[in-house]
Amino acid sequence: MLPNRDLAIILRTTAYEERSRMVTALTQNHGLITALAKNSIQSRRFGGSLELFTASDWIFTQRPGTEFFHLTEAHVRKSFDQLPKNFENLAIASTFNEVILRVAPPGEKCPELFKLHSNALSTLNASPSSQSGFPLLNAYFGKILQCNGNQPQFHRCLACKIPLESIKNRLDPIFCRIIDASWVCSACYSTQAQLFPDHSITLSVLSIQDFQISLHLPIRQVAEQTRASLSEHIHLFQFLRALFVYHIPGFEKAPMKSLRFLRMAAISHDPLSHS
After folding, report:
1. Can you tell me the distance from the alpha carbon of 26 to that of 30, in angstroms, rounded to the nearest whole number?
2. Of the four listed, 46, 187, 190, 258, which is most buried by Cβ atoms within 10 Å?
3. Contact by Cβ (8 Å): 113, 26
């Protein structure tokens, strides 16, 4: 068996027998893989290379007919060591990991997803403030929807076709529809509500504009272009998550554990949660 070499970002680890771990990672050239790291518990063999979020250089093999790999060596490339120091950033990074575990193809090269995930963690790790966390999370979700062909159509009102940029009042709400990932302006919604019976989420014009801009920017530049408030971005995230559940098959087979901590982070910032 010839060894494989690849750069891997740790997404999940679980104990295996007494001294080993099963480690799932997103790799640069092999997509999503799970590897057995023998004698990795209470041992210095792998150092910190198997910690969550760590980017490590892996050497691994795979026996014919088996589903997982055998990890022989791992060396830390980048640790993202600032993430555990900020609760909100840690919750958002955990959400990144859970999402990529569900959408990355097992055993298939996915360079766009690897680059997105790596850059998102790097940006979050370098952020001194959690204020940029939810805009970054929304950009991350948006870019994955874009990769899957489920990008929301936010250019014009579904009913009257008015362009988003023509709505000048940033406080004027728009009604975003989950079923077809589109929106209806407040004028159309108030006069034709019976035509839009499905569930919708009310968002601000400015948060949607932020989202549109983020789709065309590298994720590292998203935070500096954000104009909507943190509360507006929290509501935008609720809509984007609903799109994932509705439009990506199998995404909601099991609840996302990280959302429990993400809700705690959101509640601490969302004035509507205290009303």
Report:
1. 8
2. 46
3. yes
In tens digits, the chain (275 residues) has pLDDT values of 689 999 999 999 999 988 999 999 999 999 999 999 999 987 788 989 999 999 999 999 987 777 779 999 999 999 999 998 888 899 999 999 999 999 999 989 999 999 999 999 999 999 866 567 899 999 999 999 988 888 888 889 988 999 998 988 777 888 998 888 889 888 888 887 666 656 678 899 999 999 999 999 999 999 888 889 888 999 999 999 989 988 887 777 677 888 888 766 665 554 433 33
Would you give the DSSP letter of residue 197? Answer: -
Q: Whose CA is closest to 117, among 174, 63, 179, 55?
A: 55
State the residue for tokens 């004028």.
187
119, 106, 116: which is closest to 30 by C-alpha? Answer: 106
Phi, psi of 111 (to 5 degrees): -60, -35
Q: Which residues of 173-197 are buried (b: 16+ CB within 10 A; e: fewer)?
A: ebbbbbeebbbbbbebbeeeeeebe
CA 170 to chain centre: 26
